[in-house]
Amino acid sequence: MNLSASRLRRAVMGVSDAEATSFSRGDGPVWSHLETAVRTAVGGYHCVLDSSRFEDLVPRLDRTPLELRGYAYEGAAMGLTGLDCFLPGPSRFRAYLRGPGEPHVYMAHIGAGEALARLRRRPERFLARLDDPVLKWLVMDGYGFHEGFFKPARFVARQHVPRHLSPYARRVFDQGVGRSIWFTAGAQVPLMARLVGRFPARRHADLWLGLGVACGYVGGVDRGTIEDLRAAAGAHAARLAVGTAFVAKGRHLAGNPVADTDLACSVLCGGVTSAQAARLVDQAFTDLPAGPVPGYEVLQRRLADSLAERPPRQPADRPAERPAERPSERPDHVPAERPGEAPAKEDVR
User: Which residues contact 330 (CB under 8 A, 6 or more apart)?
Assistant: First the structure.
């Protein structure tokens, strides 16, 4: 490991802890859980800046606790994609997908999208070079997450959509923005619902799907909160279920299932376990047709149909009171741009 090169890369490309956690506005267990997830992803990213050689990188990623390891691999994919944008040679990201990143293929594509957003690269040019016709769309999810998370004033408060995106890419972008709201709103259901409600109605379904992804993968909340989330989604509750089931497959593929995913599947997906939800995703992947409708959209439609066959699970009896997070000073507050970010401008590359 070349220490001078590592220091230079961190100085130029690194993400400070202040920037990574500036979304947090509380000190309760949910905020702490969300901060840990973000710090773990940033840690994986910085591992790549220290050394992108897999023999150095992978042992460091694998020291991450199993339940958090997907975030570390996501961050590593972000770093490798960033290096690909600046340095010549074979694609480090594609080698990662064929090698140590393969079990974490869902999170790896998301990490690549985050790098493209951070470097203001046009993501669909990148998608065109990827092999998987379905999972490549997760790059757009990562792209949307980065913009919603690091630039909430523009992409959440003002609901901006990058003009260079194709119509379907905009939809998956919104799924990533929805996932970012889970973090920036501290998983507080009333605030998440208000933020989604301010977007044009045509964008609500994909934003709610992104919240379902976050609920299923990130978790950090109790059953009552998930039941409140389902109620707040209203007609879009089925989209929550699709997002949660999909990431259940991602966690089982990576070998890092967690109790939070089982809980989310139980509430949102008609009482199934995360393993059962993962099998539904496998079935939805079977013989996806090639055609004008993107395979990722066909997959989500099939998954929605499978989940619709299951009766909605009735809410469990609530405890008398759930501990509340310390509220932010302004409940409707959307943070300004993250420290260190240049003023937003349209990508021209």
Answer: none
Cα(198)–Cα(212) distance, rounded to whole angstroms? 18
- Please name the amino acid found at residue 248: A
C-alpha distance from residue 71 to each of 34, 112, 275, 332, 345 (Å): 11, 12, 20, 28, 28
Local structure of residue 222 (DSSP, 8 states) = -
The DSSP line for 127-140 is HTT-S-TTGGGHHH
Is 113 in a helix, a strand, or coil? helix
Q: 12 in the Ramachandran plot: left (φ > 0), alpha (ψ -120 to 50) or beta?
A: alpha
CA 18 to CA 34: how far, in whole Å?
14
How far, CA to CA in Å, does 2 sit from each of 47, 72, 227, 242, 264? 13, 21, 50, 44, 44
> What is the C-alpha separation between 325 and 90, in angstroms, rounded?
47
**Each residue's pLDDT tens digit, 109-166:** 999 999 999 999 999 999 999 999 999 999 999 999 999 999 999 999 999 999 999 9
Residue-level length of the chain:
349
Residue 180, classified by CB atoms within 10 Å of its CB into exposed (0-12), middle (13-18) or buried (19+), is buried
User: Which amino acid, residue 252?
Assistant: H
Tens digit of pLDDT for each residue in 19-61?
999 999 988 999 999 999 999 999 999 999 999 999 999 999 9
Those residues with Cβ within 8 angstroms of residue 117's Cβ, 6 or more apart along the chain or in another chain: 123, 142, 143, 144, 146, 147, 150
Distance of alpha carbon 86 from alpha carbon 302, whole angstroms:
39
Residue that is written with structure tokens 């470097």 in the block: 119
Residues 6+ apart with CB under 8 A from 324: 28
Distances (CA, A) of 280 to 150, 265, 269, 277: 33, 12, 11, 5
